[in-house]
Amino acid sequence: SHQDIIYSFRDSNLTVPGTNFSIVNHTDPLFVDVEMRSYNFNHADADYIVFLDMKITNTGGSSQSTNNLDSVYVGIFANAVIRNVGITPPGSGGAGFYNKGANGFVDSLHLAYTYDHSGDVGNTNTYIGQKFLGSEDKYGFHHPMLDPSFKSNYNSWEFNNPGFGVFQAPYNDSYRYQKLSNGLEDYPCWDVDNGSCGGSTFQSQLNTAGNRSDLISVGPFRNFNKGDSLIVSFAFVFAQKLEDSTAAYTDNTLVQMSQLMEHARDAQIRYYGEDLNQNGVLDPGEDKDNDGKITRYRDLATSLEESTNDEKFIIVNPIEESLSIKFLNIENRIETIQLINISGQVQKEWRHDGSLVFEKNVSSIQSGIYLLRIIDSSKNVYVKKLIKE
User: Fold this and answer.
1) Averaged pLDDT for residues 292-313
2) Number of helical H runs and strand E runs in the chain
3) How far apart are CA 268 and CA 245, in angstroms?
């Protein structure tokens, strides 16, 4: 994309790395590595979405351990605060700055969301959502639309209020797993007040002002064994809270939510990419880039095969096994092509052979962000950011 962030982290330690301090309430690591990538495309029809891929690998711990995990759930939570800081400075009023948001969940879109309820009335008009897109493991593609046994779950709790209540943050690992594997929408109180729901339905309680965290989780993933990997994809979606002449600012009507839901659907379509019939299988006619696999976000990523530097060359980006450059209007002979890592070190350097299409195998290069530097005979330098997957 036009802006990528790559994170790597793991759960394998009992002590804080580099110290002898025990990690509080952490005695049973999962022994998994996580590579998380975010993508942000600078297109007018997609700049309201940030995509997030998480690749989770079961490392197994010790060489003797099998570390077989079953019924795995993966989630992402956010404690979004939506305020107009041009009107109310960040943090002013202490806790009162943060407790003006309201929350909700659209189960058909697997979309959790937050909006300004009563903080800067009439001056914020914004939704922030986090949405599940799809997942893959050794058994194939997983989405509730295709497999009723695989589902998304939604939970919400008051910030910094741990305990065992419905709207309290999970107090320990056992309760965290309960939150991950079951959602508020599974309770009868979600949409029916049976007199024991706390005064109103859960949805109505979420649509009042508060400082809450939202969790959306998916699963189960079966037989996640040592050496296995799975990929789970989410999106952060941003939208305006539209005007509804029949509703108050603090309401949360379908009219007010309509742009949020439209943007959420856009995110889903863009995630599917080449998978036109959305079945998780690369069917005949779908493999537009002939790489033998589904290319996600293709309509966005292929727009990065743009002509640059006054149509002098076209680069396929991101790259996987090979680097491919097509030269167009070349006034001066291309002399040197370099691939440089983010630390400024030259990882590969080639002399150009004069061909209009330049291809080199780069499978030995680690995944990450690189700069491609092209130097011609007049010492003109052209630089392009590349992503190696």
Assistant:
1) 60
2) 5, 21
3) 30
* 252-258-264 Cα angle (round to 5): 110
| Separation CA 78–CA 75 (nearest Å) | 10
Phi/psi for 271 (5° steps) reads: -65, -45
Give the separation between CA 66 and CA 84, rounded to whole angstroms. Answer: 51
Could you report how far apart the first and last alpha carbons of the chain are, in Å?
12
Cα separations in angstroms, 54 against 32, 110, 182, 292:
12, 17, 21, 22
Residue whose structure tokens are 């299988």: 281
Residue 155's CB: how many other CB atoms inside 10 A?
A: 25
C-beta of residue 152 within 8 angstroms of C-beta of residue 144: yes
**Quick one: tokens of 337?**
């092509």
Which one-letter amino acid corresponds to residue 356? Answer: L
**What pTM value is reported for the model?**
0.74
Question: 49, 266 in Cβ contact below 8 A?
Answer: yes
Going by C-alpha positions, the residue among 233, 249, 218 that lies closest to residue 82 is 249
Kindly report, residue by residue over 259-269, the tens digit of the pLDDT: 999 889 888 88
DSSP string of 38-71? EEE---TTTTTEEEEEEEEEE--SSTT----B-S
| pLDDT band per the 50, 70, 90 thresholds, residue 379 | confident
- Partners of 114 in the beta sheet? 103, 128
- Using one digit for the tens of pLDDT, what is the confidence trace for 100-145? 999 999 998 999 999 999 999 889 999 999 999 999 999 999 999 8
State the DSSP H helix or E strand holding residue 203, giving kind and residue range, or none if neither.
helix 202-206
Question: What φ, ψ does residue 367 adopt, rounded to 5°?
Answer: -65, 145
What does pLDDT average to over the chain?
87
At which residue do the structure tokens 């392009």 appear?
384
Q: Say which amino acid occupies 369.
A: I
Q: Strands, DSSP E only, in 18-174?
A: 32-40, 49-58, 72-78, 101-106, 111-116, 126-137, 140-142, 151-158, 162-163, 169-170
The answer to whether residues 49 and 56 touch, using CB atoms and an 8 Å cutoff, is no
Backbone angles phi, psi at 3, to 5 degrees: -145, 120
